[in-house]
Amino acid sequence: MPYISDTKTTLGLLQDRARLFEDRIFASHENQQLTIGQLRDLAKQTSSKLSECGVVAGDRVAVMLDNHLDNLVLFFALLWVRAVHVPVNTRLRHDSLSY
Questions:
Q1: What is the fold, at CATH topology level, of the domain defined by 10-89?
Q2: Core-most of 58, 65, 76, 82, by most CB within 10 Å?
Q3: How far, in Å, CA of 77 to CA of 71, rounded?
Q4: Are 97 and 80 in contact (CB under 8 A)?
Q5: How far is Cα 35 from Cα 30, in angstroms, rounded to an integer?
Q6: What value does the CA radius of gyration of the chain take, rounded to a whole number of Å?
Q7: What is the rounded CA–CA span in Å between residue 7 and residue 32?
Q8: What is the pTM of this model?
Q9: pLDDT tens digits for the chain (99 residues)?
């Protein structure tokens, strides 16, 4: 059954879909799977930890993670905090990472 959301944000869409399809597989990597409900719950928990660490709305957070489910969780957690996910190439080394 097709479903079109009138939700205006990516985070709102995640919450909306998690309410409707909580147990549906959203992503898989190697031998791990993540349902949309699990993604919502893990992202919300991670956003609380980020807030405890001092991350606030508008902060830019450099993320140097390989393609993995944790990266997906962190992306949505940063949206929850209203911080900006700044991906950093995991192949960069030493001087390439200096600012």
A1: Rossmann fold (3.40.50)
A2: 76
A3: 10
A4: no
A5: 15
A6: 15
A7: 29
A8: 0.85
A9: 455 556 689 999 999 999 999 999 999 999 999 999 999 999 999 999 999 999 999 999 999 998 899 999 999 999 999 999 999 988 888 887 776
